[in-house]
Amino acid sequence: MAYLRRKRHSLPPGPPQLPILGNYFAFSKDSRLFTVFAEMEKKYGDIFTVNFGFGHNSIVVSSVDLVNELLVEKSEEFAGRDTSLWSLYLMSGGYKDVAFADYGPVWTVQKKMAVKVLRSYVFSGKLDCLAKSAFEEVAPLLAKQSEPVDVDFYISLLIYNIICRFAFGKSYEIDDPEFVWLRKSSQKI
User: Fold this and answer.
1) What is the pLDDT of residues 3-19, one digit of tens each?
2) Ramachandran bin of 30, using left for φ above 0, alpha for ψ from -120 to 50, beta for the remaining angles
3) Are the C-beta atoms of residues 44 and 15 closer than 8 Å to each other?
4) Which spans are transmembrane here (predicted)?
5) Using H for helix, E for strand and C for coil, what is the string for the chain?
6) In the chain, where the domains are located
7) How far is CA 31 from CA 34, 36, 42, 60, 142, in A?
8) What is the pLDDT confidence band of residue 178, given thresholds at 50, 70 and 90?
């Protein structure tokens, strides 16, 4: 116990942790990760520590200014990915995205699409331009939010719109019925 307490002194504050389980019970109350983090932010501030179990501490940053400082201004110092399986499960929506999905027919289709699209656009230099314009469409929606939001939704809007531009040569408004249908259809796969 003394070892666990000493180890946390160099980390930002966070909810009390149980040995082995970490903060498991904080996440079992609500499956929406962003709402759990919003509650923790109210208590612990813009930067706090959570433990996803088995000693895997993760630092959560909820301030746009801090995120910019850490991921843009000091990107090399804070690069890396959490290797905790449970936290990856939470962050990837149950291992359903192409980066963390289990090998199988769905992943194979996702990978083929991603590789084909990225290869053609990365080498042509169009990717940066498309990503910037897609971000400019979603940024005003995020700016209107006064409550904590699930950024996964907005990130998926960005990604789907970029993929639609790659695949169909067409950009969609966020509320376009065809775009909504495409998003919902691809999530059912």
Assistant:
1) 444 455 688 999 998 88
2) beta
3) yes
4) none
5) CHHHHHHHCCCCCCCCCECCCECHHHHHCCCCHHHHHHHHHHHHCCEEEEECCCCCEEEEECCHHHHHHHHHHCCCCCCCCCCCHHHHHHHCCCCCCCCCCCCCHHHHHHHHHHHHHHHHHHHHCCHHHHHHHHHHHHHHHHHCCCCCCCHHHHHHHHHHHHHHHHHHCCCCCCCCHHHHHHHHHHHHC
6) 2-91, 105-188
7) 9, 8, 18, 17, 22
8) confident
Six-digit token string for 177: 């019925």
CB 62 within 8 A of CB 34: no
Residues 6+ apart with CB under 8 A from 105: none
Query: Which residue do the tokens 């082995």 mark?
Result: 20
> Other C-beta atoms within 10 Å of 136: how many?
9
- Cα–Cα–Cα angle for 81, 187, 131, rounded to 5 degrees: 55
Angstrom distance (rounded) from CA 180 to CA 157: 9
